Amino acid sequence: MRSLLNLILVIDLLFLGIIYRPLPAQAAPRQPDMLSKTSPSLGGTSTGPDCLLYPMTAKQTVIDSAAPGDTIDILGGFPELPAGNVDRGWLAWDPQWLNVSDLEAELQYPQLSLSNYTNPLDPDDHILNTGDYVASLPGNNNSTTTRAVLHTLVGQEIIIPVWDNFSLPYGAYQISSFARVRIDSPSNINLTTSNPTILATYLGPVTVEQCPYLSLTKSGPVTATVERPITYTLTLTNSGNLTATNLVITDAIPAYATYVDGGTRVGKVVSWTIPSLSVGSSLTRMFTVTATRTITNKDYRAGAEGNISTTGDLTVTTVISPDLTITKTGPVTATAGSPVTYSLVVTNQGGLATNMVITDTLPAHAVYVSGGTLVGSVVSWTIPILEFGESLSRTFSLTSTNLTIINSDYGVSADGDVCAMGSISVVTALVPDDRMSQFYLPLILKE
Question: Which fold has domain 324-434?
Answer without folding.
Answer: Immunoglobulin-like (2.60.40)
